[in-house]
Amino acid sequence: MEFRKMTFDGITYNVLTEKEMNELIQEVQFKAELEFQHEKLLNGEIETMELEDFEKKHRLRYEI
């Protein structure tokens, strides 16, 4: 995202429209959620398995 510069009373500000600000906030929140989920995955809080292992487990459970 590119910020526009606006100078007021000798101070330069980064300026965004309301839509751009909302998009930036959503992007930051999305990145924070990704980092949170990544930490849970690394800490073993989320169970993961290979697709082939899942298929085997599913077949054994439902006798397919």
Task: Describe the model.
By secondary structure, the protein is of the alpha+beta class. 58% of the residues lie in helices and 16% in strands. Strands 1-2 form a two-stranded antiparallel ribbon.
Level of helix content? 55-70%
Shape: rod-shaped
Question: What's the gyration radius in Å?
Answer: 23 Å
Written as H for each helix and E for each strand, in order along the chain, the element string is EEHH
Structural class of the helices, strands and pairings? Answer: alpha+beta
Beta content comes to: 15-25%
Mean pLDDT: 88
Major sheet details: 2 strands, antiparallel
Report low-confidence residues grouped into runs of 5 or more.
Answer: none
- Euclidean distance between termini CA atoms: 51 Å
Strand order in the sheet with the most strands:
1-2
The number of helical runs is: 2
Topology:
Blueprint (H helix, E strand, L loop, with lengths): L3 E5 L2 E5 L2 H25 L8 H12 L2
Antiparallel strand pairs: 1-2
Structure at a glance:
By secondary structure, the chain is of the alpha+beta class. It has helices at residues 18-42, 51-62, and strands spanning 4-8, 11-15.
What labels describe this entry?
64 residues; 2 strands; single chain; rod-shaped; two-stranded antiparallel sheet; 16% strand; alpha+beta
